[in-house]
Specification:
This protein folds into three domains: 8-94 and 308-313, 3-Layer(aba) Sandwich (Rossmann fold), CATH 3.40.50; 103-118 and 190-298, ATP-grasp fold, B domain (D-amino Acid Aminotransferase, Chain A, domain 1); 123-187, 2-Layer Sandwich (Dna Ligase, domain 1). It has twelve helices and 13 strands. Strands 8, 9, 10, 11, 12 and 13 form a six-stranded antiparallel sheet that branches. It has a four-stranded antiparallel sheet with strand order 4-7-5-6, with helices on one face. Strands 2-1-3 form a three-stranded parallel sheet. The chain is α+β, with helices and mostly antiparallel strands. It has helices spanning 8-11, 25-41, 58-61, 80-88, 97-104, 106-115, 136-142, 166-176, 218-222, 237-253, 289-296, 301-310, and strands spanning 13-18, 45-50, 66-69, 123-127, 147-151, 161-163, 182-187, 191-199, 202-203, 207-210, 228-230, 259-267, 273-279. It is globular. The two termini are 23 Å apart. Pfam families: Dala_Dala_lig_C, Dala_Dala_lig_N. Cell wall formation.
């Protein structure tokens, strides 16, 4: 697998945007520093730019030619930073305003996939201003008695919970309201979890995740050494091809471009794949999934980073 890349001189001066003030700041710092190190080793004129510590107008005084966005979560992955950079006339990596905003919002993501008849689990929406605890029993019955609760616009599994009773659901929704005023309540799919990375329109090999945790939560992603990653994932060639096409279709449906990742569950009984969510600025730490998938395809971390940077050379 090969990607379009350019010379270090063609990239010019690059700001690696990291940190920020979202709930995913710590992960963003780790991702950004790993990416910066790879760029520097490739001879790219790059430097770290923490948006929590600097003003965006500093990009002008720094004579930046392009920005590699490594901000996870709100303020970096939701379209707001993309819009600001467009106003400044500075090219950036990954999805544009629309693709970023849609992908960040789990509810709108599911609504689009549902309208296009792409497979995704059944769901209900809880809105803070009109949430009634008495509705939890009906929601549990409608969604099969086991659900995942997710703040609509958070990443890294922050604020998420798996519940199996109406009382647990009420508590989980109230906890999720601390992060967002809209909460997705999604039917739980019993089965294996996969993720597919998409870079420059190409699907990388799928990864299957296995964790002793209740689900693939923040700790399982970034802190715990008990999580196992399988790549090859154990799918047949036909299933791998089907999953790759599903995930690229799902990514395109959200107007996402450049690079990203799509997460999927496979029902243990029917083997049907169900789309969970899309990420337009996935993690790039040593534990992150995109670098693992790239390595399985024979792509080094440096090559991957340069492929991501190359997405800034085309309009988002």
């Amino acid at each position: 697998m090969t990607f379009t890349t350019y010379s270090a001189e063609q990239y010019g001066r690059v700001a690696v945007m990291l940190g920020g003030d979202s709930a995913e700041r710590a992960v963003s710092l780790n991702s950004g520093n790993a990416v910066l190190k790879a760029l520097l080793s490739a001879g790219v004129d790059a430097f770290a730019f923490d948006t929590a510590e600097r003003q965006l107008t500093d990009l002008i005084s720094e004579k930046v030619d392009r920005v590699l966005i490594m901000l996870h979560g709100r303020g970096g992955e939701d379209g707001s930073m993309q819009g600001a950079l467009q106003q400044l006339g500075i090219p950036y990596t990954g999805s544009g305003v629309l693709g970023s905003a849609l992908s960040m919002d789990k509810i709108h993501t599911k609504q689009i996939w549902q309208c296009l008849q792409l497979p995704t689990a059944k769901y209900e929406i809880a809105v803070k201003s009109r949430f009634e605890a008495g509705s939890c029993g009906a929601i549990m019955n409608k969604l099969g008695g086991k659900v995942m609760v997710k703040p609509a616009r958070e990443g890294s599994s922050i604020g998420m919970a798996k519940v199996t009773s109406a009382k647990q659901l009420e508590t989980a929704i109230q906890d999720a309201f601390k992060y967002d005023n809209q909460v997705l309540v999604e039917q739980f799919i019993d089965g294996r979890e996969f993720t597919v990375s998409v870079v420059q329109g190409k699907a990388l090999p799928s990864i299957r995740m296995s964790t002793p945790h209740t689900f693939y939560d923040y700790s399982a992603k970034y802190q715990d050494n008990t999580t196992e990653y399988f790549c090859p994932s154990g799918l047949s060639d036909e299933q791998e091809s089907t999953l790759a096409q599903l995930c690229t279709d799902a990514f395109d449906a959200l107007s996402a471009t450049g690079w990203g990742r799509v997460d999927v569950m496979q029902d243990s009984q029917t083997e049907q794949f169900y789309l969970l969510e899309a990420n337009t600025v996935p993690g790039m730490t040593e534990k992150s999934l995109v670098p693992k998938a790239a390595a399985a395809a024979g792509i080094s971390f440096q090559e991957l980073v340069l492929a991501v940077l190359a997405t800034s050379m085309e309009p988002a």
